[in-house]
Fold these 3 entries.
Entry 1:
Amino acid sequence: MFSKACEYGLKAMISIATKSEKGQRTNLKEISKDINSPEQFTAKILQQLSRNKLIHSVQGAHGGFEIQKENLGKIKLIDIVKTIDGDKLFVGCGLGLNECDASKPCPIHHRFIGIRENLTKVLSETSLEKMSHDVNGGLAFLNR
Amino acid sequence: MFSKACEYGLKAMISIATKSEKGQRTNLKEISKDINSPEQFTAKILQQLSRNKLIHSVQGAHGGFEIQKENLGKIKLIDIVKTIDGDKLFVGCGLGLNECDASKPCPIHHRFIGIRENLTKVLSETSLEKMSHDVNGGLAFLNR
DNA sequence: CTTTAATCGGATAATTTTATCCGAGTTATA
DNA sequence: TATAACTCGGATAAAATTATCCGATTAAAG
Ligand code: FES
Ligand code: FES
């Protein structure tokens, strides 16, 4: 479904959000421990998220990563997925035809688009804020 | 969503089905032309499908691939996907936790399982027969 | 029996994805 | 101003996926 990079990216964003929600800043070491991911690979993904303004990075001692509190409700999971994996999952053909086109559909098209739209809807509606609330409330986990 | 190998596998199966439905046997060259896929890579996937008894292969001149007519309605898309990509898509955690476990769920779990079940349902209900009817009837396409 | 048209399957190559290394830059603090 | 704790980013390595090569085998047909 998602690439490994995207899975790490989603978990990292949620991890950062759980701290930002409490006004705390976190850093690479803490994040990758939190989500059980390879540190340097995670660093690359955080850079990418930072360049795309989804997170704010602070260099130097006591630096790290944070998300503006007012953005916690605005950033949706789909923003993260699109930043890392692009939008192929949301607009591409499930069988890999050059493009998904209802006027010349692949055999699974009509059955597939419902699923795709549902996925798009769920990821578009789910904010980081909800995710981090669930984790901070002990209802969900980033590591197991 | 699916790997390239799996996309080719699904399309190849449907291509074979369109011929088998008409009592014809097809072969590698024809299939990969039909679905616009690299010949030798497609050969590997067909071997895998053959070893798993989803298709029947015939060696020698005038050989090729075919699907028993009585199987066209029995083989479902999910059988093909599981053969090539395994069942991770259907049972694995969307965020890549070691396993998907509702008692210690990842943050997207409750939103994700609905989509996953829908996908499982659709692929479990869709037979090769339906797919090949659509293609033979000009309602769907394997190549564009 | 020979030729021809196929699949089989092991080996290799190319590409993409995942992961690591390390030197340079940045900033708080002693 | 020196040191320690960070991120940045380019280079490289490892692993997985995708793709190709080619000799062996099989079987139909002349
Ligand atoms: S054409 Fe294949 S999913 Fe739309
Ligand atoms: S635990 Fe992640 S999808 Fe179920």
Entry 2:
Amino acid sequence: MQLHKRDVIDAATAILDNFGMADLTMRRLARELAVSPGALYWHFANKQELLGAVADRILQPALEPHVPPGWRDQIADGCHRLRDALLSHTDGAELVSASFAAGQSAAMTEIVTRLAAAAADAGVAGSDAELAARTVVYYVLGFTADEQSRLQWDAAGATLPDGQSVLTAEPSRRFAFGLTVLIEGLAAHGDSELLATARDDLTQRRLG
Amino acid sequence: MQLHKRDVIDAATAILDNFGMADLTMRRLARELAVSPGALYWHFANKQELLGAVADRILQPALEPHVPPGWRDQIADGCHRLRDALLSHTDGAELVSASFAAGQSAAMTEIVTRLAAAAADAGVAGSDAELAARTVVYYVLGFTADEQSRLQWDAAGATLPDGQSVLTAEPSRRFAFGLTVLIEGLAAHGDSELLATARDDLTQRRLG
DNA sequence: ACCTGAACACCGTTCAAGT
DNA sequence: ACCTGAACACCGTTCAAGT
């Protein structure tokens, strides 16, 4: 039976979920698929490209189109869905972070584009909108990688008697806090930017 | 001649600067020091611990005490010094990011503590101050790792005719932009928090 | 206390040769 | 077109034995 890209990504995702990133090696993956390591290099140029494909698979659920109106909810919603997608797979945040940094995730590019559009709606001027989007993404990836490593660390160790408040509720509240800080910052910046544009507009009209 | 921790960190930093993170391996480091690989494990428990020590060395210049008064300048200054330290070594941002995520950098812990104190001054309530500090740190690490990888990528390739505006001035402006968004967000949050505290205070006084 | 030598159990990637 | 076999050039870590 022929080996397809899909099978490879499926098997890679399974290894990730069951054993984590450290075990997601080309050789191990080949063994699981019962092919020689070299076979993988017919379908993927290198390991980075393969990891990028796994990242895109993980991010699929976060890619449904924006439902909410209003840039604040668009950013908040996008970020929550991103976090949820990352938390759905072992070491998800770490994997996606690495793929994003290596520029190997088309899904992350799409997410940044959407967040940039929302930032533009907030009043952030042209070229800064993508930067604003990246700033938000740095937060989500950093926070979630941190959260996930702690989560996985004491998933093996001490199971706290309270299985909810500290382990799931608190992180979500904390995540929302940082998100609010960013959104309020964008609102403040956007407002002053819109003011400046309006001022220039008036000046233009007076001179024209 | 006896091998000391200092010598190991020195040699590791030299490899990093001259060849980058991919070449910073235990075996290569041992070769450079003319010892066997096993010797390193007398001085460091594992590679992560050694990388943490290199991270702390890199961060040394960012650890001079806060000079400016006012929480805004304290955050802005701290972040600029952090970025400068990271950019002073090849793959500096990547190395410090990894060490921070692994909880192996005492210097990063110190930096977070200082930023948290500034956030508290901004009016961010107790336990959220550290989270605010981490949020800022996620931004600096994310932005700088990104900046540095692009910088190093086209340091080998196309040397743009303009050697200043896009390669150094623009990144600095862009870095400041994201920082302002975060600081304004903290200001907005801090103000509303202070208002709430004041309101509670009044209520207490009315009831008491 | 500090280090060597040698081993253990792996890596990612390439590429002639096969079908 | 797709894959095997085997090699190349490495890894991090451990640990008995030496000084």
Entry 3:
Amino acid sequence: MSAGARPTLRDVATQAGVSPAIASRVLNADPTVRVREETRERIQGVAKDMGYVPHSVARSLRGARTGAIGLVMHGLDSPINVDVLAGAQAACARAGYVTLLADAEQLAGDHSQLSAFLARGRLDGVILHSGYGEEDRLLEAITSSVPAVLVNSEDGRPVPTVRVDDAAAARLATEHLIELGHREIAYIAGPEGSQTSDRREAGYRDTLARHDLGGAVDVVHAGWSAGAGTTAVHELLRRPTLPTGLVVANAVAASGVLSAFRDAGLAVPGQVSVITIHDSWFLQHLSVALTAVRLPLQVLGATAADLLIDTIEGRSPVRDVAITEPAPELVLRRSTGPTSRR
Amino acid sequence: MSAGARPTLRDVATQAGVSPAIASRVLNADPTVRVREETRERIQGVAKDMGYVPHSVARSLRGARTGAIGLVMHGLDSPINVDVLAGAQAACARAGYVTLLADAEQLAGDHSQLSAFLARGRLDGVILHSGYGEEDRLLEAITSSVPAVLVNSEDGRPVPTVRVDDAAAARLATEHLIELGHREIAYIAGPEGSQTSDRREAGYRDTLARHDLGGAVDVVHAGWSAGAGTTAVHELLRRPTLPTGLVVANAVAASGVLSAFRDAGLAVPGQVSVITIHDSWFLQHLSVALTAVRLPLQVLGATAADLLIDTIEGRSPVRDVAITEPAPELVLRRSTGPTSRR
DNA sequence: TTGTAGGCGTTATCAC
DNA sequence: GTGATAACGCCTACAA
């Protein structure tokens, strides 16, 4: 063993005067092995002295596991998505897994990146953050090589699914506006095809219907970005009359909504009330501190990780999980108030 | 080979009627091998038909490389840091590396997480996002096992270093306020011990000195969070007089600064001008659209990745890189204006 | 032009 | 109690 090279198990064994087999079992605390206390201590001492570190690659070649989980995310420019990432990453780390991070768009767009990521033996499983684009092709490539969990998708998919209670969050937001006296409430949606946005829209429609306001349903398609929120407002401003309340599907888009109203000289909540879904640090610093429904996004990521790890380790997991604990929670700030009209 | 199992190189070779050696060389496009065109096509055809995917673990056990780079980050709750992450991740992916993501605090606080991450054979190198805490212990553990690059640190470290031109950014910010007529300009610093903040502070001091304002140096220690910015303002408000201009070390902290002024009923920029360093999507949506100096953070991450990859692949890299291209750039919004006082 | 064999570092099986 | 040995899948001298 030369100076720079790390010692192998064989080096340790030789140095301790035992066979590699014994050294391996002692260092892995194999409960079925019976060795003299003295031998055990000698081996452990030598390993420590030589700075022995097990070779994870050799280990996973022998066994079948790698101790690594892939996180395929998108939209990391939004803090909302980063929350999910952070929750998943932390849960994996707690369970002893390292995490490989990839960007869904990059992976879908570059075949060689995808195969590097899914190379055999690299990953024990993948958490796929469900967006609204290339998802299906990606999902197929992934599931054909390792177990996967889908975050934020509808259930009834070929793989287990985890999501927060988007409908309940939207209901809570809509109820809040109704309680304040609003009757003309629009929903500013996410991008077309987003299941997350669709579930929120369903909650919004539900709530209007339950209050006999089903005829007032008013959905404006926008997107997840601040720019999309701004565009949506410009669209509203072209109408003869404005809704008095807005449920915005996402906090980043809501930022753009608020700025657009500020630039148009409309008072929030004086002329329009705005509430959004997702809470984040920046909401209280916007042009008007933004009222929101808090959703447990870190828990979402962590639950996906736990579910995947259960699958990997052979504990049979539930299939589709809708997270209800902690429940969506109203975070009151200054962007909603009683309606002036009617 | 059973139904579920993926085919191995040997399976492909057998099926194609050749030896594993030939199959390996053909599939890896070994330029020194000379095979009949027909044989080559047969091998490639069989590999494709069987869905052969090389086993990355076996490959890296044989060779020494794993094709994986570790990203040790901190503060992913701030979009500023996420920008660096995204730049590094994308650059690694472009170069054919997968990325392992870990959180610096978690790694420093949990020994078993650290050894799982640094397990032999797992990583070809590590990008360490330099913070202000556990960095040194972490750095030692990392560098003793793989090549590393430090992002955002001073140079003169035992490993190569990459950073943006923090001093120039602070100079630009300070100059801007001076040009607007401000003479009492405070610097709202990051946390104690942050080298990034120190470099910005140096730029600020420089600029004051160059304008014969050296006596007006006024540094308030805060931190990177919005809360820290708010606290710093509260501290300022206890003074008999306020500075007329503020250079805030970081855009997240600056959010808290603006909110604190709003809550205190002070007009920005009427009574105080505020400029910050780092641009991000949320700045234009704050209570006052925030003027900032844009710094190329994605480029920072990407440069760190490129530098590390050069090291790994044996191209001798420069040691310490200060990124000057693109240069820091002033992004004018509404939070700075001529001073009313003096 | 193609094949054989050895070994990367581990761990599981079986024998002593 | 402990040790030899084989195998995981791949790559690459060297041989034919």
